[in-house]
Design a protein that fits this description.
The radius of gyration is 22 Å and the shape is elongated. The mean pLDDT is 86. With 191 residues, the protein is an all-beta fold.
Length: 191
Amino acid sequence: NYGLLPQTGFDVTYQVNSNAPVSATYTSTLAAGDKNNYTVNGVVAPTGPFTVCVWTDLTGDCFHLNDTVCVNLVGIPTIPAPYCDDFENGNIGWAANIDPNSPNQTDVWELGAPVSGIPASAYSGTNAWDVNLANPYSDDALTYLYTPYIDFSNVTTGEIKFDLFYDAEAGGDGVTVEYSTDGGVSWNNVG
């Protein structure tokens, strides 16, 4: 609350992409100069990149630059094990994202038939995930490819296998494969 008076009974509104905004009334009292966490319930994350904006709407407040926040997120579905994907049936829950702090905002993982680089084909079938299917990646590329969340809760023994090919500039570029057991809060290197 950037104002001089305590406030209550104002709307907190969120919007996912261009969907209809959803509002709820904040019923507690927010003291002058204070802040509070507010849980927005009912947000359904779509698969892939999306934007969520949240704002407050206080009667008489004409300055909205200090009451709105937007974040870019990636929605990833959960798929039960066993899981197998050769990418020939389209994108089944994978998500590509460019690091927002990277100076290179053009190179991104793409699904399709690779036609540039080495190899210029998929391991099996015609489709693969590749950074820029038709062109080599440029300097300062920092892009992520997320698998669907795979639910291993009913698996007592198993393995993860995948085919990986990379052609990276020696001494500076590379590939890191990581996994998370807490929904992406923290990440661990494989191997």
